[in-house]
Each structure stands twice: as C-alpha cells, then as structure tokens.
C-alpha cells in the first residue's frame, strides 16, 4: 500500500487516508459508487483509494444544496464573506501540504503545486472584499469561481472526476512559437540549449523543472503525436521527442521546427512540445495564431508600441488571454481566465464572471403620483 510510505505521511494532516469517500453530502463524507485508485505519475504506484459517488449520492447532494441555499441566501453578503474568509484561512494553514498533494498526484513541480493552492487562497481574500461591494456595477474575480459563487448566494456542488480524485487540479498546455526571420536562428539555438539543461524528475525534489505527465494515457498520446511528426515531412525534432524509460510517465521536453502548413500544429498534443515556425511579418504571425481552432492564451514579445496595440487590438490575437512580454500563463487574480473558439467562451475569473452566480433584476420605482406609460402613450 503506497499510503504507508514515509513520504505520504503528510496526507493524514489534510484528512486523507488509505481509503476515502469521494462525496461530502449534507454535512457528511459518504459515497456508494465504484472504488478507484489515485496514482503517483512519477512511478505509477497507488497513493490511495477513492470511492466515487453514485447517482443516488449525487441526487441527495443536489437536494441538500437546494435546501442549504434557502438559508445561505438569507445571510447578508458580508456574513457570507466572513465564512469565505475562514475557508481561506483554513487553506492557508495547510498550504504546504495541499501544494505537495497537487505535485504528488498531478506531477507538477512543487512550486507550481503550492502556487495552485495559493491562487485559491488569493481568491478567497478577493471574494471577501467583493462581499461588501455587491451593490451594482462591479468588476470582481479569479480563477476559482467557487468563492465568488459563495459570496454571490449560489451553493456549490462538487464531485471529483475519475481522472483526478484527491487533488482536483490538472493543467496541460500546447504552445507554438512564431519567430521573426531576423532573430529566428539565434533564439532557436538558445531555446534548444536551455531545453537540454532542464532537469526532469520527481516533482517534489528541489531543482526539478519538469515532472511526469499525468497519466499513462498521456504518455501514450505523446508517443503517438511524436510518431506522427516523424512519419511526415512536416518538421524536424531538434531536441527531445522520446519517452524516458522508467516506472513513471516521464517524457522529454521537445522542440519541433515545423511548417505552418502542418496539420499537427492545430491539434492539441497535451505534452511538453514546442512547435517553432519562422515568420516574416507581424501580420503573418497573427494570421497563424488565429488560424488554429484553439484560443486560450497568446503572447508577443516586442519593444514596439505599434506592435503591441496591433496585437491586442481588433485585428490582433483572437485568444481569450492576450499578453505582451510575458509568457502565455494566466493573469492576476482580478483578470478573466478563459478562451475563445474551441477552447470555450466562458471565463473562470475577472470581469463579469460573478454575474453567472446572480439572479439579475432590473428594478424601476415610480415615486410620483402619476403612472407614466411606455413610448409616451397618453390616454387623454
């Protein structure tokens, strides 16, 4: 049993055991569905078991949420915010353990695992402030909408997915880089050199920059993608491109020099693969960026103001996140996180994301002694 290992002892500090019910229903942990195992992607050994909720459990939970919502929405928003503050403090107290769990179960390096949990804590802090501002046109938010939902009256019903049962965090990325021909070879040589120096290994070990992909299926998908690239005349693998032989799901970070006409660059491989393409103009780069069906995040690196405003303007990137001189990661907690096109049109944060948790009413109150009619109608 993997749970008995010394490096897993911290799990008991956050309420986890060798066997865990997967649902918190009406104030109690329970589940009566099938049992699944969560594994460490570094060695594919079992960490713990989770009993999934059944349809009956799920429906019971929904009924409990509906009943709880009746009480919850009667609380003033600042009172709801106070409860969210307590949730944030509880997470803050266990930040290191929870971050370690994310790394253990998902393969993220420890800094990223802790960072994921810190975002939830930041969200709680932000939502507490929001709870005293629900008075009209406002701009709140963050990546984790549960906290926004709580201060906005809505009840939340959560169940773990079979692919990610005790950590509930997974991130995969596909990246393409377009380089102007004047700097193409110089930047590419530096990238290849840096990729060859990246330390791959146990995400919990200091100095590791790349951990394993999440599942064996992800590793197999990486292999299939690389095989497709090698079988065509589309591109050239400059570094990486192989699975690392081990008990875990480790693959090599890969750089592929490829033609923009290759269909594979429009498909999501979900692995550490960087496609590099040479471009002549900004317009060409924007056209390539916008030609793919995905539209989550994009970024341009430049010192020219005209390039910046072209990139972020109506004729620029069509992604949900449009960055300048920073990587393609998400924004600060007040910024909207989400994509366009096949990536979806919703937002998990920022802007107007709070509105989906509210019932909006337009209220018109007549304080006069006469009844005004629409369109200036007058009965005489």
Automatic annotation (TrEMBL):
<protein>
    <submittedName>
        <fullName>Aldehyde dehydrogenase 7B4</fullName>
    </submittedName>
</protein>
<feature type="domain" description="Aldehyde dehydrogenase">
    <location>
        <begin position="178"/>
        <end position="361"/>
    </location>
</feature>
<feature type="domain" description="Aldehyde dehydrogenase">
    <location>
        <begin position="34"/>
        <end position="146"/>
    </location>
</feature>
<dbReference type="InterPro" id="IPR016163">
    <property type="entry name" value="Ald_DH_C"/>
</dbReference>
<keyword id="KW-0560">Oxidoreductase</keyword>
<dbReference type="Pfam" id="PF00171">
    <property type="entry name" value="Aldedh"/>
</dbReference>
<dbReference type="InterPro" id="IPR016161">
    <property type="entry name" value="Ald_DH/histidinol_DH"/>
</dbReference>
<dbReference type="InterPro" id="IPR044638">
    <property type="entry name" value="ALDH7A1-like"/>
</dbReference>
<dbReference type="InterPro" id="IPR015590">
    <property type="entry name" value="Aldehyde_DH_dom"/>
</dbReference>
<dbReference type="InterPro" id="IPR016162">
    <property type="entry name" value="Ald_DH_N"/>
</dbReference>
<comment type="similarity">
    <text>Belongs to the aldehyde dehydrogenase family.</text>
</comment>
<dbReference type="GO" id="GO:0004029">
    <property type="term" value="F:aldehyde dehydrogenase (NAD+) activity"/>
</dbReference>
<keyword id="KW-0520">NAD</keyword>
């Amino acid at each position: 049993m993997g749970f008995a290992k010394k490096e897993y002892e911290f799990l008991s500090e956050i309420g986890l055991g060798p066997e865990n019910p997967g649902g918190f229903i009406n104030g109690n942990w329970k589940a009566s569905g099938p049992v699944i195992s969560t594994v460490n992607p570094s060695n594919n050994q079992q960490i713990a078991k989770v009993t999934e909720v059944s349809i009956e459990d799920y429906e019971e939970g929904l009924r409990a949420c509906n009943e709880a919502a009746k009480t919850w929405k009667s609380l003033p928003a600042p009172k709801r915010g106070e409860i969210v503050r307590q949730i944030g403090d509880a997470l803050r107290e266990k930040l290191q353990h929870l971050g370690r769990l994310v790394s253990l179960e998902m393969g993220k390096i420890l800094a990223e695992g802790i960072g994921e949990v810190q975002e939830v804590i930041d969200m709680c802090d932000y939502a507490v402030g929001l709870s005293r501002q629900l008075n009209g046109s406002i701009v709140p938010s963050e990546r984790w909408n549960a906290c926004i939902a709580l201060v906005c009256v809505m009840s939340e019903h959560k169940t773990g997915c079979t692919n990610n049962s005790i950590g509930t965090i997974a991130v995969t990325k596909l990246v393409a880089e377009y380089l102007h021909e004047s700097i193409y070879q110089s930047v590419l040589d530096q990238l290849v050199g840096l990729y060859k120096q990246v330390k791959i290994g146990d995400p919990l070990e200091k100095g590791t920059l790349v951990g394993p992909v999440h599942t064996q299926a992800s590793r197999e998908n990486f292999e299939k993608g690389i095989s497709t690239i090698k079988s065509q005349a589309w591109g050239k693998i400059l570094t990486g491109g192989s699975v690392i032989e081990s008990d875990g799901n480790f693959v090599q970070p890969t750089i592929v020099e490829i033609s923009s006409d290759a269909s594979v660059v429009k498909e999501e491989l979900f692995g550490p693969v960087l496609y590099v393409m040479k471009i002549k103009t900004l317009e060409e780069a924007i056209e390539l960026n916008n030609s793919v069906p995905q539209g989550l995040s994009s970024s341009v690196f430049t010192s020219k103001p005209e390039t910046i405003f072209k990139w972020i303007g109506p004729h620029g990137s069509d992604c949900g996140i449009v960055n300048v001189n920073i990587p393609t990661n998400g924004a600060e907690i007040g910024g909207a996180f989400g994509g366009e096109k096949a990536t979806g049109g919703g937002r998990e944060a920022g802007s107007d994301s709070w509105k989906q948790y509210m019932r909006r009413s337009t209220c018109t109150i007549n304080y006069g002694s006469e009844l005004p009619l629409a369109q200036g109608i007058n009965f005489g």
